[in-house]
Design a protein that fits this description.
With about 260 residues, the protein is an alpha/beta fold. Helix content is about 45%, strand content about 15%. The protein has two domains: about 1-105; about 110-250, 2-Layer Sandwich (Nucleotidyltransferase, domain 5), CATH 3.30.420.10. A hairpin with a 3-residue loop joins β3 (about 110-120) and β4 (about 120-125). The relative contact order is 0.12. InterPro entries: Hepadnavirus_pol/RT, RNaseH-like_sf.
Amino acid sequence: MTIRLTPEKIKHIKELVKQTIDSIRHKKPPKKPQKRLVAKLIGCLIASLPAIMYGALYYKYLEKEKIAALKSCKGNFDAFISLSENAKYELDWWLNHIDTSFNPIRYPPVDVVLYSDASLKGWGAVQEEISTGGRWTAVEAKCHINVLELHTVLLALKCFKVSITTKHVQILVDNTTAVALINHMGSVHSDSCHLMARKIWEFCFRNDIWLTAAHLPGATNVDADHASRNFISVDTEWMLNSTCLVEALETSISP
């Protein structure tokens, strides 16, 4: 059983979104929407979230920029606001998805449990008896640990994609901020964390995955922690398995 917005509510929200978009894109010279219009739109979007599965992911920039604009003009809702490309992307998402969006009344039980952990050296992930991980690049290693924890979740989902597609996945993480960012679908407080959370959820959307995150104390997240700190040496010599090589060659040259 699912929840959907009524046609009247969909029409009302689309009208507000179009008004906001029109005030940005279709005027010469370009104009800016009033803060009052943006605030009204955000209120309607938030009120609709129980019926829009991924809606919470697509209002954070609008909210953040509204708050900053109100602070700069001492709460004047009649002043105008400039919207970033990220905020415009959110407007487009609502316009393109609100007609077909819905939300289940109850999500199915968890099908798959993954464990993940990030260190300043690298990342690790575990599903049952299978573990994986890798080193951060020099650029990635400079990111805040919260971003690295979220990046690890994304990498874990990608690594185990075959076994988790169309499933309800629970990811166990020892970072409470990462747990909150996943379950709340991002944040208005950190652009880098929000963008990584959005990448996670957009990957889930494309692969029909429903994701929930839960906190696991670091002392018990042993396997994922080990995978994030211990790596196979890149200097190790490798050799193809002779049996597999023969089978592959026979298959490739057979008529």
